[in-house]
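F.,

This is the one I mentioned.
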């Protein structure tokens, strides 16, 4: 399972464990509460029976034989009988709901004058008083008859139930988690402009409809994108044909009569053709191009050579050689857009540097232009955003930086525009070494 669902799954399992533990504890408390009354009734009845039989035996015996009878009765089934002296200190009953309930039920049968304690003369047990004529006695019932041993076997059953419940919860959460992982991955690909694989529609009932709807949405978006690309390609072809004829006609104008107008018209036609090219680049993206391990220095040196052929003196500062997984043509388009933007609106000299920072390769394009207002740094990465300033991009479509930003995101990287303290702009491209 992937990282995010693992966090969610661990929280779900922890919540299930806590809820099960609370439920088991509550069940034990409820069982103890409802079982306390009959157990106390049985214990009290046992004590009352022992007292009544002992009292009846002593009453039926001759007075001079009571001592011998007491000796004979003491020790039977662990029950002991002693003469009582109520002038001595008697410990109060402990603050135990069960013992208090047993004492109340014994007094209900033997009378309110009955004295009950759980420890006397250092001997533990249930001490119950009774009297015969002027004599007072204690009947001592050992703890084994009063206290119920802790049900350790319950802990085993509770642990078994808890383990089975957690295992069932884990399997259920994992079953739901798998299609959720696929959905998250597909949605992430769709967000990046990639076509996701079709989600399986044989998952759990709760997610089957979601998967079906998502697949239909992805198919609809793919069809819409294909239609848009086809329309723009058709429009581009239809517009470029008359543009080519127009340029040919302009080139045939006489230089001596229309020299100034001719150069302006040629430039306008070139700008229109460039705008159409940017539209197509924005729509086309990087579809069909495979990802390759490419030496970033080779890419930057090729960029330097292209700029030299265009008559531009591009300064490059290269980091040590390092290969990264990229789409070469798309990355070339990104760098050309950034460098072209820097030359068009950056005031002359342009410098490109690369450096390795942790798990990233950072490529920076520096220019000496007027910079960009802080409030517009992020806006300029959106399609069709332009500034009415010295960097207005008045001759373009406003898609150059948007294309560069889209390509950076397709490589799991990021593009930032940063105003330099000494003046000018830095376009900083960060590409992960592994993606």
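My design for it:
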């Amino acid at each position: 399972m992937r990282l995010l669902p693992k966090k969610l799954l661990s929280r779900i399992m922890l919540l299930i464990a806590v809820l099960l533990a609370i439920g088991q504890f509550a069940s034990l408390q409820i069982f103890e509460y409802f079982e306390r009354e009959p157990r106390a009734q049985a214990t009290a009845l046992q004590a009352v029976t022992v007292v009544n039989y002992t009292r009846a035996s002593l009453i039926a015996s001759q007075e001079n034989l009571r001592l011998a009878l007491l000796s004979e009765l003491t020790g039977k089934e662990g029950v002991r009988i002693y003469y009582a002296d109520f002038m001595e200190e008697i410990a109060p009953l402990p603050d135990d709901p069960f013992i208090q309930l047993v004492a109340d039920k014994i007094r209900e049968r033997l009378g309110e004058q009955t004295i009950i304690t759980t420890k006397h003369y250092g001997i533990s047990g249930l001490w119950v008083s009774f009297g015969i004529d002027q004599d007072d006695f204690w009947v001592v019932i050992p703890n084994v008859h009063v206290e119920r041993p802790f049900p350790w076997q319950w802990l085993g059953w509770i642990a078994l139930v808890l383990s089975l419940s957690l295992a069932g919860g884990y399997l259920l959460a994992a079953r739901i988690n798998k299609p959720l992982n696929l959905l998250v991955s597909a949605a992430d690909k769709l967000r990046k402009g990639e076509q996701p694989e079709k989600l399986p529609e044989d998952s759990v009932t709760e997610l089957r409809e979601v998967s079906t709807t998502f697949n239909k949405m992805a198919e609809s978006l793919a069809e819409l994108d294909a239609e848009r690309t086809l329309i723009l390609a058709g429009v581009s072809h239809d517009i470029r044909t008359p543009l080519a004829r127009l340029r040919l006609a302009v080139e045939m104008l006489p230089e001596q009569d229309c020299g100034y107008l001719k150069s302006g018209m040629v430039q306008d036609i070139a700008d229109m053709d460039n705008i159409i090219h940017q539209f197509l680049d924005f729509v086309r993206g990087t579809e069909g191009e495979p990802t390759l391990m490419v030496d970033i220095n080779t890419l930057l040196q090729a960029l330097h050579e292209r700029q030299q052929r265009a008559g531009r003196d591009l300064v490059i500062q290269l980091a040590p050689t390092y290969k990264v997984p990229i789409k070469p043509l798309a990355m070339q388009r990104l760098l050309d857009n950034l460098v072209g933007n820097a030359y068009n609106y950056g005031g002359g000299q342009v410098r490109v540097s690369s450096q390795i920072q942790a798990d990233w390769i950072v490529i920076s394009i520096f220019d000496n232009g007027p910079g960009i207002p802080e409030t517009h740094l992020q806006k300029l990465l959106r399609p069709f955003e332009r500034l009415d300033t010295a960097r207005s991009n008045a001759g373009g479509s406003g898609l150059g930086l948007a294309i560069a930003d889209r390509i950076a995101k397709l490589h799991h990287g990021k593009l930032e525009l940063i105003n330099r303290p000494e003046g000018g702009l830095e376009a900083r491209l960060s590409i992960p070494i592994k993606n």
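The radius of gyration is 46 Å.

Talk soon.
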